[in-house]
Amino acid sequence: MSRLEDLKARIKEALPGLECVIGWQKGYDPLHNTPLFMRSEADVDKLEWGALNVHNPAVYLPSFRGKKIGIVVKGCDSRSVVELLQEKLIDRDGVVIFGMPCDGVVDLSKIKAKLADAGLTAGKVEAVAADGKTVSVTAAGKVEAVAADGKTVSVTAAGKAVTMPFADVAADKCLHCQFPNAVLADAYVGDPIAPAPASPAGNADMAALDAMSVPERMAFWRYHMDRCIRCYACRNACPMCVCRDHCIAQSREPHWLSQEDSVTEKLMFQVVHAMHLAGRCTECGECQRACPMDIPVLALKKHLNSTIHDLFDYQAGVDPVAIPPLLQFKVEEDNIKERGW
Amino acid sequence: MAAVKFIASEKLPEWIKALAGTRRVLVPVEEGGGVVFRPYDPARKPVFGSDATAPPKAAVFPASQELFSYAYGKDAEDPGKTTLALTPKVEAEPTVVFGAKPCGARGFLIFDPVYVGKKFPDPYYIAAREATAFVTMACAAVENTCFCHWVGSGPADTAGSDVLLTPVAGGYLAEAVSDKGAALLEGPYFADGAAKVQEAEDVKAASRAALGEAPDIADAPAALLAAFDDMDFWRDQSDKCISCGACTYLCPTCYCFSITDEGVGNTGRRLRSWDACMHFQFTLEASGHNPRPTKAHRLKNRVGHKFSYYPTLHEGLIACCGCGRCVKSCPVSVDIREIVQNAVARAKG
Predict the structure, then answer these.
(1) How far is A94 from chain B (nearest CA, A)?
(2) Whole-model pTM?
(3) For B197-219, what is each residue's pLDDT tens digit?
(4) Which domain range does residue A141 map to?
(5) Which residues of chain B make contact with A37, given a CB cutoff of 8 A?
(6) How far is A310 from chain B (nearest CA, A)?
(7) Does residue A194 fall inside a structural domain?
(8) φ, ψ of residue B302 in degrees (nearest 5)
(9) Count of domains in chain A?
(10) ipTM of the shown complex
């Protein structure tokens, strides 16, 4: 039995006692998988596992509080589940965690760019194959030949396969992933795999920003935030954004943000979002992946996380009983020498 | 007889530049990882091949616009009395939206019955609509998310456009669709297009053929109404939705807005800004009651409005142009086509 079949069997076994189990299935085209909510055995048969499971299903957990549900996780997703448990936003006995070792997921924006380089469009992907080392995408380019006789039209569009090394199109977080196995699981299928070696590749975005002067960095953010449409996909895809329907971005009282379509307002929201996530964010990258305008908003959270790491030697979503540093108070912090100043 | 002209690819920038001399010209350009409409800048190369990430909706219906400014004051004669001065701001800059796909322009056909109605004509919208012309570009290639042929449109739909350009060898065939469009096809950039007409027709036919057959969704209005109270059905359709506004804000036909006063002290501005029916606040009432409290209620409304309630009110016009942005840009790939088909299948039993 393959690992995936084994996982499906475990889910089917548990399903009768659960509201549903969240995982992934194939989406509208070969390049897109989509979240799957399994309520029947037939649903479980649709479950997919692999490099296209880009979404973090932990985002749905708080909305099921009070019910018992299952969730299939990649290592990174499991950290969000753990962080939700740490913050008591979900209950341990309300969630059954299914895990498998993860070889990494793709970044669809990187694939889109690769296809564009080859003169193809990500909008017309016909097939995708990934073997853990390379990703091969077949996409139609331009229509190559047309013949029309007034009654019928015959179209010839040859599919062309582009093969990309996985490392070139993997999500940044996967390039230096330290948690390829679930950090917490009730049912784990397969043998845990070794973490990725430390690599600067996954933090190239931070290196580029750190190398900028402050005015350059401000210009960078103003340029990118200008195309923000304020859809709040970044917020709603974030498993730790739990204010949900009561977000300050839309409240009139308090009135932190206006409805003016300005870069200042848009950037202000991103700063608020990042500050609220300091020491809570597991860098799953959903904010950036969800952005329909491809704005690199994860960098703001990464920066604050690195500060939290330096100050508190802390990583979010690893230990279910740890209290996040900004959710507690210590008279004397180890790395903040207030009295020594 | 409408004007049919040919413009060579190398003449296109000259034409755009000439248009930009007397009016705002918005063209699709790359910005970061997205393609957005921005005022023409000769230094930035427009992107005409694929559809823009965001449609040209803001050209006529800005994401946020000032309706009027206000100032409270004291009556000099009677200091107990408060005065209020309102200064309306109806502005419409002459604009050409250049290089949108036909679906992007068609979106405004869905706006029109709402904003240009006899009962409540909207002066802001009408001024901008009249000041704006659309030079669209027929699609030479289609994407997996395209479904314009489902909603009575197609890759070379002229409805909503003023000029339709079709890519042919060496340039574009330019067809005037309206008088406004004919007036734009003037200048030394054009040659007679008669000889290119057949080639352009072939390109259009090929794109249309590439879309394949559309499913029969004639029963969708009734099917969606029939599913109205079936909340298990809507739970299943909306399970993965994360309630963000990407689908609505990127939709060429979504026309809902919110009104807020942004004031400081005694003065301020009343703004109209895009609203999104996927957000909890959309129907939140002052009492605290919300008739659409869950994402299942909200997604039901979005699909129902586009494929049932609106067409029923407006002579069968589907409030969707089939551009597919809601599918393509959805963080979790919610597919409105699938939901409509599921509703139709549910009604058939």
Answers:
(1) 18
(2) 0.93
(3) 999 999 999 999 999 999 999 99
(4) 108-168
(5) 236, 239-240
(6) 31
(7) no
(8) -65, -45
(9) 3
(10) 0.94
